[in-house]
Amino acid sequence: MVLLVTDDDDRVFKALADPTRRFLLDRLFARDGRTLTELESELEMTRFGVMKHLRVLEDAGLVVTRRSGREKLHFLNPVPIRLIHNRWIDKYNERQVSALADLKAQLEEQT
Amino acid sequence: MTSTVENGTTQTVTTQVYRVYIKTSAQAIWDAITQPEWTNRYGYTGYVDYDLRPGGHYRVRPGEEFKSASEAMGNKLPEIIIEGEVLESDPPHRLVTTFKMLMDPEVANEETTRITHEIKEMDGYCSLTLTHELDGAPKLAAILSGSQEEFGAGGGHAWVLSDLKTLLETGSSFANS
After folding, report:
1. Which of A37, A66, A79 is closest, CB to CB, to B20?
2. ipTM for the assembly
3. Domains of chain A
Protein backbone atom coordinates (compact mmCIF):
# COMPACT_ATOMS: atom_id res chain seq x y z
CA MET A 1 0.00 0.00 0.00
CA VAL A 2 0.96 3.61 -0.47
CA LEU A 3 3.05 5.24 2.19
CA LEU A 4 2.57 8.77 1.09
CA VAL A 5 3.07 11.40 3.75
CA THR A 6 3.38 15.14 3.75
CA ASP A 7 7.03 15.35 2.82
CA ASP A 8 6.75 12.86 0.05
CA ASP A 9 7.26 15.10 -2.95
CA ASP A 10 10.17 12.77 -3.77
CA ARG A 11 7.83 10.07 -4.90
CA VAL A 12 6.01 12.48 -7.20
CA PHE A 13 9.18 13.85 -8.76
CA LYS A 14 10.54 10.34 -9.28
CA ALA A 15 7.27 9.20 -10.84
CA LEU A 16 7.34 12.18 -13.20
CA ALA A 17 10.98 11.61 -14.15
CA ASP A 18 10.10 9.04 -16.79
CA PRO A 19 8.73 9.65 -20.30
CA THR A 20 6.45 6.59 -20.31
CA ARG A 21 4.82 7.62 -17.06
CA ARG A 22 4.38 11.19 -18.27
CA PHE A 23 2.83 9.76 -21.44
CA LEU A 24 0.38 7.73 -19.35
CA LEU A 25 -0.60 10.83 -17.35
CA ASP A 26 -1.07 12.77 -20.60
CA ARG A 27 -3.35 10.04 -21.92
CA LEU A 28 -5.43 10.17 -18.73
CA PHE A 29 -5.52 13.95 -18.89
CA ALA A 30 -6.93 13.71 -22.42
CA ARG A 31 -9.46 11.11 -21.35
CA ASP A 32 -9.83 9.99 -17.76
CA GLY A 33 -11.01 6.68 -16.31
CA ARG A 34 -9.23 4.23 -18.62
CA THR A 35 -8.58 0.52 -18.24
CA LEU A 36 -5.15 -1.09 -18.33
CA THR A 37 -6.02 -2.71 -21.67
CA GLU A 38 -6.75 0.65 -23.19
CA LEU A 39 -3.62 2.33 -21.85
CA GLU A 40 -1.52 -0.63 -22.92
CA SER A 41 -2.80 -0.42 -26.49
CA GLU A 42 -1.15 2.99 -26.90
CA LEU A 43 2.30 1.84 -25.83
CA GLU A 44 4.93 -0.43 -27.35
CA MET A 45 5.34 -2.26 -24.08
CA THR A 46 4.26 -5.45 -22.36
CA ARG A 47 1.17 -5.45 -20.16
CA PHE A 48 3.45 -6.15 -17.22
CA GLY A 49 5.63 -3.14 -18.04
CA VAL A 50 2.62 -0.82 -18.22
CA MET A 51 1.33 -2.24 -14.93
CA LYS A 52 4.66 -1.47 -13.28
CA HIS A 53 4.58 2.12 -14.46
CA LEU A 54 0.97 2.51 -13.32
CA ARG A 55 1.94 1.15 -9.92
CA VAL A 56 4.66 3.80 -9.54
CA LEU A 57 2.13 6.49 -10.50
CA GLU A 58 -0.37 5.05 -8.03
CA ASP A 59 2.20 4.94 -5.23
CA ALA A 60 2.97 8.61 -5.89
CA GLY A 61 -0.73 9.40 -5.67
CA LEU A 62 -0.82 10.62 -9.28
CA VAL A 63 -3.19 7.86 -10.36
CA VAL A 64 -6.17 6.61 -8.37
CA THR A 65 -8.01 3.45 -9.40
CA ARG A 66 -11.65 2.69 -8.98
CA ARG A 67 -13.67 -0.42 -9.73
CA SER A 68 -16.55 -0.13 -12.14
CA GLY A 69 -18.26 -3.49 -12.53
CA ARG A 70 -15.47 -5.92 -13.33
CA GLU A 71 -13.23 -3.22 -14.73
CA LYS A 72 -10.53 -1.30 -12.94
CA LEU A 73 -10.46 2.28 -14.15
CA HIS A 74 -7.46 4.59 -13.79
CA PHE A 75 -7.99 8.24 -12.94
CA LEU A 76 -5.47 11.06 -13.03
CA ASN A 77 -5.24 12.62 -9.57
CA PRO A 78 -3.93 16.18 -9.96
CA VAL A 79 -3.74 16.91 -6.21
CA PRO A 80 -0.03 16.02 -5.73
CA ILE A 81 0.91 18.26 -8.68
CA ARG A 82 -1.24 21.02 -7.23
CA LEU A 83 0.61 20.68 -3.92
CA ILE A 84 3.98 20.94 -5.66
CA HIS A 85 2.67 23.94 -7.55
CA ASN A 86 1.58 25.59 -4.30
CA ARG A 87 4.83 24.82 -2.56
CA TRP A 88 7.32 25.59 -5.31
CA ILE A 89 5.91 27.59 -8.18
CA ASP A 90 4.10 30.14 -6.03
CA LYS A 91 7.22 30.52 -3.96
CA TYR A 92 9.35 31.48 -6.94
CA ASN A 93 6.89 34.00 -8.26
CA GLU A 94 4.34 32.54 -10.57
CA ARG A 95 4.19 35.61 -12.79
CA GLN A 96 7.83 35.44 -13.78
CA VAL A 97 7.58 31.73 -14.39
CA SER A 98 4.52 32.08 -16.60
CA ALA A 99 6.17 34.96 -18.47
CA LEU A 100 9.11 32.68 -19.22
CA ALA A 101 6.76 29.89 -20.26
CA ASP A 102 5.03 32.30 -22.64
CA LEU A 103 8.36 33.43 -24.05
CA LYS A 104 9.42 29.84 -24.63
CA ALA A 105 6.13 29.06 -26.39
CA GLN A 106 6.47 32.14 -28.59
CA LEU A 107 10.08 31.45 -29.55
CA GLU A 108 9.36 27.83 -30.32
CA GLU A 109 6.38 28.77 -32.45
CA GLN A 110 8.67 30.87 -34.65
CA THR A 111 11.08 28.04 -35.38
CA MET B 1 -16.84 14.17 -21.77
CA THR B 2 -14.71 11.07 -21.40
CA SER B 3 -15.15 7.54 -22.58
CA THR B 4 -13.51 4.18 -22.39
CA VAL B 5 -13.34 1.81 -25.30
CA GLU B 6 -13.20 -1.79 -24.21
CA ASN B 7 -14.19 -4.90 -26.08
CA GLY B 8 -15.62 -2.78 -28.85
CA THR B 9 -18.16 -1.05 -26.62
CA THR B 10 -17.96 2.58 -25.64
CA GLN B 11 -18.65 3.49 -22.07
CA THR B 12 -18.84 7.09 -21.01
CA VAL B 13 -16.86 7.93 -17.90
CA THR B 14 -17.78 11.31 -16.47
CA THR B 15 -16.56 10.61 -12.96
CA GLN B 16 -13.72 12.59 -11.42
CA VAL B 17 -11.62 11.05 -8.66
CA TYR B 18 -9.30 12.94 -6.32
CA ARG B 19 -7.22 11.77 -3.40
CA VAL B 20 -5.21 13.62 -0.81
CA TYR B 21 -3.17 12.34 2.15
CA ILE B 22 -3.44 14.45 5.28
CA LYS B 23 -1.48 14.14 8.50
CA THR B 24 -4.42 14.40 10.86
CA SER B 25 -7.27 12.31 12.28
CA ALA B 26 -10.31 11.08 10.36
CA GLN B 27 -12.49 13.12 12.72
CA ALA B 28 -10.59 16.33 11.92
CA ILE B 29 -11.12 15.76 8.19
CA TRP B 30 -14.78 14.92 8.74
CA ASP B 31 -15.27 18.11 10.75
CA ALA B 32 -13.46 20.19 8.12
CA ILE B 33 -15.91 18.91 5.49
CA THR B 34 -19.14 19.06 7.50
CA GLN B 35 -18.80 22.08 9.81
CA PRO B 36 -19.38 25.64 8.58
CA GLU B 37 -16.68 27.20 10.78
CA TRP B 38 -14.19 25.00 8.89
CA THR B 39 -15.58 25.15 5.37
CA ASN B 40 -15.35 28.93 5.24
CA ARG B 41 -11.59 28.67 5.72
CA TYR B 42 -10.42 26.84 2.59
CA GLY B 43 -11.05 26.42 -1.12
CA TYR B 44 -14.12 28.25 -2.39
CA THR B 45 -15.08 29.02 1.24
CA GLY B 46 -18.77 29.26 2.23
CA TYR B 47 -20.81 27.87 5.13
CA VAL B 48 -22.07 24.30 4.84
CA ASP B 49 -25.26 23.15 6.50
CA TYR B 50 -25.69 19.38 6.58
CA ASP B 51 -28.51 17.39 8.10
CA LEU B 52 -26.38 14.27 8.42
CA ARG B 53 -28.93 11.49 7.86
CA PRO B 54 -30.27 9.87 4.70
CA GLY B 55 -32.76 12.26 3.11
CA GLY B 56 -31.35 15.20 5.10
CA HIS B 57 -30.46 18.45 3.37
CA TYR B 58 -27.06 19.74 2.30
CA ARG B 59 -26.69 23.44 1.58
CA VAL B 60 -23.86 25.90 1.20
CA ARG B 61 -24.23 29.64 1.82
CA PRO B 62 -21.56 32.00 0.55
CA GLY B 63 -19.26 33.74 3.03
CA GLU B 64 -19.30 37.54 3.22
CA GLU B 65 -16.01 37.96 1.39
CA PHE B 66 -17.04 35.72 -1.48
CA LYS B 67 -20.39 37.51 -1.67
CA SER B 68 -18.90 40.99 -1.92
CA ALA B 69 -16.11 39.90 -4.30
CA SER B 70 -18.68 38.31 -6.57
CA GLU B 71 -20.96 41.34 -6.42
CA ALA B 72 -18.03 43.62 -7.28
CA MET B 73 -17.64 41.55 -10.45
CA GLY B 74 -21.32 42.12 -11.28
CA ASN B 75 -22.51 38.69 -10.23
CA LYS B 76 -24.89 38.76 -7.29
CA LEU B 77 -24.87 35.39 -5.54
CA PRO B 78 -28.02 33.58 -4.44
CA GLU B 79 -28.47 32.90 -0.70
CA ILE B 80 -27.75 29.24 -1.29
CA ILE B 81 -24.99 28.43 -3.79
CA ILE B 82 -24.93 24.64 -3.48
CA GLU B 83 -27.84 22.38 -2.71
CA GLY B 84 -28.09 18.64 -2.29
CA GLU B 85 -29.41 15.75 -0.27
CA VAL B 86 -27.55 13.48 2.12
CA LEU B 87 -27.68 9.90 0.80
CA GLU B 88 -25.31 8.20 3.27
CA SER B 89 -23.54 9.43 6.38
CA ASP B 90 -21.14 7.26 8.34
CA PRO B 91 -18.99 9.63 10.43
CA PRO B 92 -16.06 10.03 10.23
CA HIS B 93 -15.53 7.75 7.22
CA ARG B 94 -18.10 8.08 4.50
CA LEU B 95 -20.40 10.80 3.27
CA VAL B 96 -22.47 10.59 0.08
CA THR B 97 -24.59 13.52 -1.06
CA THR B 98 -26.15 14.84 -4.21
CA PHE B 99 -24.73 18.15 -5.42
CA LYS B 100 -26.11 20.96 -7.49
CA MET B 101 -24.37 24.29 -7.93
CA LEU B 102 -26.81 27.21 -8.14
CA MET B 103 -24.47 30.13 -8.76
CA ASP B 104 -24.79 30.05 -12.51
CA PRO B 105 -28.14 29.38 -14.25
CA GLU B 106 -26.56 27.25 -16.98
CA VAL B 107 -24.81 25.05 -14.44
CA ALA B 108 -27.93 24.94 -12.25
CA ASN B 109 -29.91 23.57 -15.21
CA GLU B 110 -27.60 20.58 -15.60
CA GLU B 111 -28.32 17.20 -14.00
CA THR B 112 -27.95 16.78 -10.23
CA THR B 113 -24.57 15.15 -9.52
CA ARG B 114 -23.29 12.97 -6.70
CA ILE B 115 -20.26 13.31 -4.43
CA THR B 116 -18.73 10.62 -2.24
CA HIS B 117 -16.17 11.48 0.43
CA GLU B 118 -14.22 8.53 1.84
CA ILE B 119 -11.80 8.93 4.72
CA LYS B 120 -9.42 6.08 5.57
CA GLU B 121 -7.13 5.95 8.56
CA MET B 122 -3.57 4.92 7.86
CA ASP B 123 -0.41 4.97 9.91
CA GLY B 124 -0.37 8.47 11.40
CA TYR B 125 -2.32 10.06 8.58
CA CYS B 126 -5.50 9.65 6.57
CA SER B 127 -6.46 9.45 2.95
CA LEU B 128 -9.42 11.44 1.73
CA THR B 129 -10.86 10.29 -1.59
CA LEU B 130 -13.44 12.42 -3.31
CA THR B 131 -15.41 10.83 -6.14
CA HIS B 132 -17.72 13.10 -8.09
CA GLU B 133 -20.14 11.43 -10.51
CA LEU B 134 -20.89 14.13 -13.04
CA ASP B 135 -23.26 12.53 -15.54
CA GLY B 136 -25.15 15.16 -17.49
CA ALA B 137 -23.22 18.06 -15.97
CA PRO B 138 -20.39 18.94 -18.39
CA LYS B 139 -20.19 22.61 -17.36
CA LEU B 140 -19.91 21.75 -13.68
CA ALA B 141 -17.34 19.07 -14.57
CA ALA B 142 -15.23 21.65 -16.41
CA ILE B 143 -15.29 24.02 -13.42
CA LEU B 144 -14.44 21.29 -10.92
CA SER B 145 -11.59 19.92 -13.03
CA GLY B 146 -9.91 23.33 -12.63
CA SER B 147 -9.92 24.02 -16.38
CA GLN B 148 -11.76 27.33 -15.89
CA GLU B 149 -9.31 28.68 -13.33
CA GLU B 150 -7.89 31.41 -15.57
CA PHE B 151 -11.44 32.72 -16.03
CA GLY B 152 -11.86 33.15 -12.28
CA ALA B 153 -13.70 29.91 -11.55
CA GLY B 154 -11.12 28.67 -9.03
CA GLY B 155 -9.05 25.52 -9.30
CA GLY B 156 -11.78 22.97 -8.68
CA HIS B 157 -11.54 19.93 -6.43
CA ALA B 158 -7.72 19.60 -6.67
CA TRP B 159 -7.39 23.16 -5.44
CA VAL B 160 -9.92 22.65 -2.65
CA LEU B 161 -8.31 19.43 -1.40
CA SER B 162 -4.75 20.76 -1.49
CA ASP B 163 -5.96 23.83 0.39
CA LEU B 164 -7.76 21.63 2.92
CA LYS B 165 -4.54 19.67 3.49
CA THR B 166 -2.58 22.89 4.01
CA LEU B 167 -5.18 24.20 6.45
CA LEU B 168 -5.32 21.02 8.53
CA GLU B 169 -1.56 20.52 8.60
CA THR B 170 -0.41 24.10 9.10
CA GLY B 171 -3.44 25.94 10.49
CA SER B 172 -3.65 28.36 7.59
CA SER B 173 -4.82 28.10 4.00
CA PHE B 174 -4.38 29.89 0.69
CA ALA B 175 -7.96 31.10 0.84
CA ASN B 176 -7.08 33.04 3.97
CA SER B 177 -3.53 34.11 3.21
Report:
1. A79
2. 0.81
3. 8-77 (1.10.10.10), 78-111 (no CATH)
